[in-house]
């Protein structure tokens, strides 16, 4: 079993231990790379699992590799994460192309919110194919954009190129950030705060989008009220 590294819970907020990268890695033990790659694959490829940790998990894996807690070469870790991230988006794209209408017309549930579909569509329309790369760094969007590309019948070859770039920048990039920062004693001493920072920073774009959507809804309702009063 991998020893505990952090004293402060990271994603174990609200008592959800299994969303905490430390808890996940400790639980996986020797199969840590297999488990991490499976989580990355599922988070990016299965819409209803979009809540799984991504950025914070990769950062923690890189940090623990730097400190020797994860006893595998960083090159191997980055390669496996890259493949998992790439295959996850490819699966999301394929599911969107084949099952798009059925998936995107589902009713709201605890794990599926149709509002995410609308926001994803607007996000994709605004940024075009680049959304595939940008979405890698946005929780929830990371899972929905590949499916949206499939629903929109984007050319598979075109998607594949952007997917390769996104998987490299996100999967390898975030892991390497954790790895190199993990070699700094100060970062190691306060690792839990850096992970919380990664979680917070990665969630900012989503909070901004939600705030925009809320303001637009309020403006729309205000305009409707004014039109009714006239």
List the helices and strands and how they pair.
Layout lengths: L20 H8 L3 H14 L9 H12 L7 H31 L9 H14 L3 H4 L6 H11 L4 H26 L3 H5 L1 H39 L1
Helix pairs in contact: 1-2, 2-4, 3-8, 3-10, 4-7, 4-8, 5-7
Task: Supply the number of structural domains.
Answer: 1
Mean pLDDT: 75
Largest β-sheet summary? none
The total of helices stands at: 10
Alpha-beta content class? mainly alpha
What is the total tally of β strands?
A: 0
Shape: globular
Residue ranges: pLDDT <50 for 5 or more in a row? 1-15
**Percent helix range:** over 70%
Our Rg estimate from Cα atoms comes to 19 Å
Q: What is the string of helix and strand elements? A: HHHHHHHHHH
Please indicate the percent range of residues in DSSP E strands (runs of 2 or more).
Answer: under 5%
C-alpha end-to-end distance: 69 Å
Supply database-style keywords:
mainly alpha; 10 helices; disordered N terminus; single chain
Characterization of this structure:
This protein has 230 residues and is mainly alpha-helical. It has one domain (13-229). Helix content is 71%, strand content 0%. It is built from ten helices and no strands. The chain has helices at 21-28, 32-45, 55-66, 74-104, 114-127, 131-134, 141-151, 156-181, 185-189, 191-229. Helix 2 (32-45) runs parallel beside helix 4 (74-104). The protein is globular. The termini are far apart. Mean pLDDT is 75; it is low at 1-15.
């Amino acid at each position: 079993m991998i020893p505990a590294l952090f004293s402060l819970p990271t994603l174990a907020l609200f008592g959800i231990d299994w969303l905490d990268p430390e808890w996940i890695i400790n639980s996986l033990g020797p199969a840590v790379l297999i488990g991490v790659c499976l989580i990355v694959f599922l988070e990016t490829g299965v819409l209803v699992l979009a809540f799984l940790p991504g950025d914070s998990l990769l950062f923690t894996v890189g940090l623990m590799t730097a400190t020797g807690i994860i006893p595998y070469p960083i090159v191997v870790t980055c390669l496996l994460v890259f493949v998992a991230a790439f295959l996850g988006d490819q699966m999301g794209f394929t599911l969107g192309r084949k099952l798009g209408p059925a998936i995107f017309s589902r009713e709201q549930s605890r794990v599926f919110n149709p509002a995410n579909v609308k926001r994803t569509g607007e996000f994709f329309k605004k940024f075009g194919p680049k959304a595939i790369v940008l979405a890698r760094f946005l929780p929830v969007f990371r899972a929905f954009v590949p499916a949206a590309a499939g629903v929109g019948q984007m050319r598979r070859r075109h998607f594949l190129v952007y997917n390769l770039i996104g998987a490299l920048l996100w999967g390898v990039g975030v892991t390497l950030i954790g790895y190199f920062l993990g070699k700094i004693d100060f970062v190691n001493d306060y690792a839990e705060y850096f992970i919380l920072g990664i979680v917070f920073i990665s969630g900012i774009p989503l909070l901004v989008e939600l705030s925009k959507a809320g303001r637009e809804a309020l403006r729309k309702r205000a305009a409707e009220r004014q039109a009714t009063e006239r």
